[in-house]
Amino acid sequence: MPTAVVNPATTTLENLMSMTLPEIDAALRQLRLLGVRATLETRVLEAQFSNLSVLETLSTLLQDELDLRQSRLLQRRFTLSGLDERATLADFDWGYNPEIPKRTCFELHALKFITEGDSALFCGPPGTGKSHIAKAIAYAAVRAGLRVHYAEADELLAQLQVVADSSLRRHRFLKPVLDADLLVLDDLFLHRNVMGQSADDLQMILHRRYKRRASVLITTNRVIDDWHMCLGDTALATAILDRLLHRSVLVKFQGRSYRLKEATARLVNVTSAE
Ligand SMILES: Nc1ncnc2c1ncn2[C@@H]1O[C@H](COP(=O)(O)OP(=O)(O)OP(=O)(O)O)[C@@H](O)[C@H]1O
Ligand SMILES: [Mg+2]
Fold it and tell me: Are the CB atoms for 43 and 60 separated by under 8 Å?
């Protein structure tokens, strides 16, 4: 009686070909091909109804996998950045305060300043869109694959006080702040002045980033001339501003508060509904 010759390659192929859909689903899960897994049934149906070739179907499935991985990566980067919203330049009403230097904002949004190690300082009255534009630039940087660390300045400095008594916790907290390709310190001096240890911390962060030519984007509604009061120390304010303004784009925001426009619109709606 002849002995059966087992060909491992054929056996594997046969096994594969005889897999049921739930078995394929389990294999895809095991292989972590979640993008293929999510669209497999649809793509198989599509292939049957549209007479697609094996290669066409395979490439669509691979594209589904790549798309899913890309969007999950973007989501992870967004979460790590600390941003609380996905602001864009497209949803900014440039006609509302036409004095805002639109061209400079778009230039910064193109992110060249980050690769060149420059910084930016947005100054101007409340509600004129400084934080909005800063977040839009930060989100563009996230989408471009850069490491972004966004924080409200007051909050970051307060958190630094909390970890002050443990050098390990302080080091861990500071690592993303110092290492990011772009650090955004939003609303500096908004709630309070930054005095004592916090002023020193701010100086240390800006100095270390300045030495590395790592970009910082600061927004504030306090004019530069007032910074020595906000920091309670003229020498420190000069040291900070000296480094900050050395390789920085200073963007002056002007005009009316958009918050007032929104509040007025709400008031009009309430009145007309009554
Ligand atoms: N020109 C604009 N078009 C659309 N939305 C705007 C515009 N300007 C401001 N906003 C919106 O108004 C709100 C306030 O703007 P934002 O927080 O950017 O102001 P700000 O200049 O940072 O103010 P503050 O100095 O008080 O921090 C936000 O919701 C922002 O999206
Ligand atoms: Mg702001």
Answer: yes
Residue nearest to atom 9 of ligand 1 (CA): 129
Lowest mean pLDDT, pick from 93-102, 142-151, 258-267 = 258-267
For the segment 1-18, the average pLDDT, to the nearest whole number, is 49
The answer on pLDDT for 7 being more than 50 is no
Output the CA 92–ligand 1 centroid distance in Å. 9
Cα 152 from Cα 211, distance rounded (Å): 23
Give the residue, out of 131, 133, 256, with the most ligand 1 atoms within 8 A of its beta carbon, to mutate for a pocket test. 131
Helices (H) and strands (E) in the chain, counts: 13, 5
CA 15 to chain centre: 46
Counting from 1 in the atom list of ligand 1, the atom nearest the Cα of 262 is 12
CA distances from 9 to 15, 78, 126, 264 (A): 10, 44, 70, 73
Mean pLDDT for all residues in the chain: 91
The per-residue pLDDT for 4 is: 43
Distance 188 CA to ligand 2 centre (A): 8
Residues counted in the chain: 274
